[in-house]
Structure formats: structure tokens, C-alpha cells
Amino acid sequence: MSKKSIIVIAAVALIVLGSAGAFLVWKAQPKGVMVAVSTLPDSLNPVLEQNTSGLNANELLFDGLVNFEVDETSGSLYSELALAESIVQDPRNKKTYTVLLRDVTWHDGSPVTAHDVEYSFAAYIDESNDSPKRDYLMSFIESVTAADDKTVTVEFINPIPEFRAYPVLTFKIVPSKYNGQKMQVNMRAGENERKFATAPIGTGPFKFASWEIGKWVTFDANGVYFKDRPQADNLVMKRVIDPIIRMNEMRKGRINLILETNPLDRADVAKIPNVDINSYMPYAFYQVAINTKLFPNAEGRRAMAMALDKKKLIPSITDKDEGVILNHGPFPSNLFSVNIPEYINEPMPNFLPYDVKKAKSLAESGGVAGQNAILLYPDSMGEFGTKMAEGIVKQLAAIGLNVEAKRTGDKVFNRMVYTEKSYELALMYCDGFDNLYSALGDWYRSKGSHNITGLADSKLNGLFDAWEKEVVTANWIELTLDIDRRIGELSPALYLCSLEKDVYSRGLANVAIATDNPFLSAEHWKFK
Q1: Treating both helix axes as pointing N-terminal to C-terminal, what angle do 298-306 and 356-365 enclose, rounded to 10 degrees?
Q2: Which partner from 1, 353, 421, 518 sits 20 to 30 angstroms from 223, CA to CA?
């Protein structure tokens, strides 16, 4: 055999071996309910800070003592006992609740105990974990103690009625032991704790199965889930960055659910055969934050608020009769009618109604007429953000405030608004609230964790203190109105609207979505 022939045969052999190696490395696409997301979870530990996909995945993997659930018929949200079989308030000490746990197991088969609940609360409030839920939980709960293996005592800081206690007790419970080892309260410290964040065990309707970096995370049905076994055997969160590709994949039947949507796309999506649009009103709102250091005069800020005709901000979106709530203040206008209609079934009052004539007068006396300002908004708002910003710029020009809308990357936006506070005006989407907006004080207290406007008002601080302690519903309503009125007087932001959000599904039945977490009803989803 010639030298040339030997070289050719060797080259062919290398190609064959290389192809075989590639075949061994290649992994088949996972099967199951396929959910398209632009970003995969950055952590599956609910105690630690997580991106949106991580927060969504929590609902698949974990339960709280109480869970939020979705009524499939009405689409409304309600709270229901989960890991807790019963929660009973002490009739003599209204701050104390006794929790009896169900007989439930972790995904590895070990039993859930009261010590897991005690450990979970300790982990959430441990400073080293820097949990986003720490301040919220500590503002309500004094202590969580295991009385025995199945009994937990929850001591609240103040007396609290059940309708307010249940949402607080939805924090996800994590195991105190993992891989046979006791977990440290500092969940960033050890190797075992770090492993938990990428391959956790929980009690939820789905179990963690696999994680292909940059491609997908897969989950298998929990066959012994304490409610009902999920109707789908598997669920996949698949990374598809481009929204156009996501829609094309759905048209071809390769994607069953798209979570990240644009309100401007709804009309076009409605024309696609076999695609269902699942809409819900989130506990969230759009606003324009005002840097009060640069706009120190409250009259000038009130002028901006009264210059906005919110209904006309985005034609075909904000002027609709359904799917939009025009907000008059920091609380969404339907706060009372949605939560406590038996007490009050009216919208929140409008202390700063649209009035261009009065707005012009306040702009002169408040020193904003003739000023220049930049309105920042993040890339993630897309075309919707552009249209909203353009509408605001146009309406503020009517009172002599010259505003330039500037779109910027999300990282730059977050740095300028949350870290440096170097912005002038910022168009924001504010979310992460419960149904009563219990954490609103974080945005308005003088030293609130989300106070980006620089507002500092002792009267408002006192109102929030009283509001969070109040247990009599009629008094709580009055305090809510007082807070709404006081924030209107100070006007640290321009309150715009709350909009229905859409989730697109194809080939699935029983999809019911009522909050920003689309997986609340995931155990009921099944292929058509």
C-alpha cells in the first residue's frame, strides 16, 4: 500500500471517529410540555436572589405552608393550605399561629418536618444569604419555631388577621438536610448548599431532572404529590432568545408556551390558528419615577402628574375598556374592589386628575416650566416602552417641560436608577407585590429598600408603620386612603396604569394563569 493511500485511509478513519464522538456528545431534544424562555434560571434555590425564570421554576419544585392557586373557571387567584394541614390563630394572642404539617415527603423520599420550616425561615432572614424576601418576612414575622416534628409555631410581630397572614406564609420551604448532610443556614457557604441551587429537592408537583447549560432545564412529574399527580409527565424550560424564533417555533408546534410577550402583538397573535391567549392582570404597575433631588418642588411634580391624560398615552392599549387599569396613585385603582368588595367596591380616589390648565399653573410655581429632562426606559420594554415614553414626552411638553426619551440597556438602566440614582425621570415596570401591595412601603419609606426617588417624609413613614400593624379591616382601609392621599401630595412618581399580560399556549388544555408566575396551574396542564 502506498504512503498516499495510508494517509487517505487514516484521514477517513479520523473523520469517522470524530463523527462518532460527536454523536456520543450530542443529546436528543427533551420531551414534554415545552416552555420557551429568553433566559434560563440562574439558581433554583428560592431563598437566594433569582432571575424571573428561577422564580417561576420555584412554583414547580417547592411549596409553602400556604400556596397561591388559580381558579380554572374564573382565573382568579386565591390562597390555599399547602404543606400546612391546618393553621390556627391563638384566640388569646392574635400574634400567634399554630401550624400542623401534612404527611408529605421531599423528592428524595425523606419526610418533611417542622425543623425544615424552622430552618427555611432562618435561611431567609440570614444576612449572608441576602434574600430578596428577607425584609418582607422580617416586617411581619418575629419567629418560626418547631414545637415537635409536625407542629410549627409562627409568632407575628403584630396581631394579624388570617386574610393577611396567609400571603405571608407562602414563602417556599426548603429541606434542612440535602444529600444526607445537614444544610448550613448560610446557603452560599458550603459545597453541599451550592449543589442544592443547581439540583434541588422540593415537595412541588415536579422534580428537577436535568440542566443542559444554555439550552434547557427539565422537570419530571412528582408521582406522589400531595394534591394530584401532574397530568403531564415532563416539563421543559427551553432557552429561545429571539422572540421571532419563539413565535415561529410555536407555529410549527415545537413550543407549547411563550411567557414573554408584548401587548402590541396581541392582535396579530389572535389570528394564528390553534394558539390560545391566556390573559391576566398582574400585581404590578407602570410608573415614571421622579428623582426628587433634581425636582425638589412637590408642586412641580404634581404639575407633571396632572398633565397626563393616561387614556391617550398609547392608542389601542391605554384607551381600551378592558385589559387596562388607569391608576390614580401608588395603589392600583382596583385594590379594594378586587380584594375586599364586601367592605368597599369603589376605585381608589383620584387626587390629581388630568387638568392641563391647573398643571400649567403648578408648573410655573413649581419651577418645572422651561426645564429640560431625560426620560430613561429599558430595552426590555421594547416597542411598547418606546410608545409609552413618546406619549409621556408629548403630554409633558404641554406644561413647558422639555423631555427627551432615551432607551438604554437594562444593565445601564438598573445601575443609573437603582444604584447610582443618577437619573432624572425613569419609566418603570414595578412588580413582585402580593395582592394587598403589602411591600409598597419599601418604595416610599425614607430608607426603604426600593426608594429610588429620594423621598423622605416622616408623616408618610408613620402612616406605613400604622398600616402594616392594623388588623381591623375598616381601619386598614382608612390608612390605605391616607397613604394614597399623602403620596399624592408629595408626588414622587407619575402613576400610569396596570396592563393585562398575555401568555401564549398551543396544544395545551387547562392553562389558567392569574399572576406573573405562570406555573401555578402547571400540574393541571395536559396535551390536547
Answers
A1: 160
A2: 518
Q: Which residue carries 388570617 as its cell? A: 162
pLDDT tens-digit series, residues 308-365: 999 999 988 898 888 899 999 999 999 999 888 999 999 999 999 999 999 999 999 9
Spatial neighbors of 61 by CB under 8 A, at least 6 apart, are 44, 107, 200, 202, 204, 206, 207, 208, 219
**DSSP, residue by residue, 290-343:** E-TTTS--HHHHHHHHHT--GGGSSTTTTT-SSSEEE-SSSS-TTHHHHH-TTT
Question: Phi first, then psi: what are they for 400, rounded to 5°?
Answer: 85, 10
The span from the CA of 425 to the CA of 413, in Å, is 11
Calculate the CA 196 to chain-centre distance: 22
What is the C-alpha to C-alpha distance for residues 425 and 33, in angstroms, rounded to an integer?
Answer: 41
pTM: 0.74
Query: Cell 396579530 belongs to which residue?
Result: 268
The predicted-structure confidence for 54-107, as pLDDT tens digits, reads as follows: 999 999 999 999 999 887 776 677 889 999 999 999 999 999 999 999 999 999
**48 closest CA partner among 223, 186, 255, 228:** 186
Instruction: Calculate the alpha carbon distances from 417 to 291, 337, 392 in Å.
Output: 9, 33, 18
* Sheet (strand 84-89) strand order: 84-89, 96-101, 151-156, 141-148
CA gap 508, 368 in Å, rounded: 53
Cα(28)–Cα(25) distance, integer angstroms: 10
| CA-CA-CA-CA dihedral for 103, 105, 111, 117, to nearest 10 | -80
> Across-strand partners of 144?
154
Question: What is the pLDDT at residue 395?
Answer: 97
Cβ atoms of 503 and 519 closer than 8 Å? no
